[in-house]
């Protein structure tokens, strides 16, 4: 009962906060300084030269984790290390439906980051465009507890958010993140800041990033970090925020073409201001384009052998931005050690769906839920 009252209270407070929020003021660098504030900017945090700045590569995959896509994840990512001997890591934006939580536990224990992509992943873009604070709390704040429970991973290891279809929801998602203690969002594409690219920043003051998929946030919302999706440029010069949205790309089987395509976009960062290079993709797109599959592996091999580039999870990027150090210092840092978590696997089902006439089955690292977990009942109690 206390939990329910706390949730209702948080929703009511959030709704009041989200209503008629005044626009944020233009960013004043004298009032906005690290580690908790940064203006929208292409300059390197810490004032380092590009040559003295680590080039971060953020590889992300979206949607459910299951036995089909784990084949690629294992073959592509197992035992990868950066040149500083630290494990290379990817970030997985996980949806709930059809996710095997025992495999989420496996990814976590392999050193990868688990992040949020919503419980329902509604196919209606209008649903996400019009989502208010209460909806965001149910879809993401509740999902944080859901993933931690069913995958048996620490709740404080879940930091990031990506909204489905990259559909922004104005201030609501960032208000939710501030309330829920989430660290960063990677939903917001930028086409204008491709060369040089944007570095992560906060929303203490007004963002000057272009709004590609409105509505974008307008209020002052201290706390969450924006990791801008610096768009790629496709073969005809058009911007694309995710690899699978690049309209003009190499033929599916053209490994050399895909590799050159990836490297051209990477070098714009690496030879420029070293803003984080995002390789944002869905697993299915890599699977159906064998040339991309082998080119991606080849590209990651290149990154892992460069002494100034590092394949890291998204949270590690915000950590560095908050407390930037030069390349030679970063290379000497000890690797992060993560405590392994156990998974006593349970096969659950049939579990009745709350909104449709069908049953689900689940693999979890906990006791089985009573009903299929969903929005408003994320643990299936």
Structure description:
- The structure is a single chain.
- With 381 residues, the protein is α/β, with parallel strands linked by helices.
- The protein has one domain: Alpha-Beta Barrel (TIM Barrel).
- The protein is built from eleven helices and 15 strands.
- The strands form five sheets. Strands 1, 2, 3, 12 and 13 form a five-stranded parallel sheet that branches.
- A hairpin with a 5-residue loop joins strand 10 and strand 11.
- Helix 5 packs across helix 6.
- The longest helix has 19 residues.
**CATH architectural label:** Alpha-Beta Barrel
Strand content: 15-25%
Total count of helical runs of at least 4 residues: 11
CATH class: Alpha Beta
Q: Structural class, please? A: alpha/beta
List segments where confidence is low: pLDDT < 50 over at least 5 consecutive residues: 1-16
Helix residue percentage:
25-40%
Quick one: CATH superfamily? Glycoside hydrolase/deacetylase
What is the CA-CA span between the terminal residues? 13 Å
Number of domains: 1
What's the layout of helices and strands?
Layout: H1 2-18, E1 55-62, H2 67-77, E2 91-94, H3 101-109, E3 113-116, H4 125-129, H5 133-151, E4 160-161, H6 172-180, E5 184-185, E6 189-190, E7 201-203, E8 221-226, E9 229-230, E10 232-233, E11 239-240, H7 255-270, E12 277-281, H8 283-288, H9 290-305, E13 309-311, H10 314-322, H11 327-331, E14 346-352, E15 359-364
Parallel strand pairs: 1-2, 1-12, 1-13, 2-3, 4-5, 5-8, 6-9
Antiparallel strand pairs: 7-8, 10-11, 14-15
Helix pairs in contact: 1-6, 5-6, 7-9
Domain NodB homology: 53-183
Signal peptide: 1-18
Protein name: Chitin deacetylase 8-like
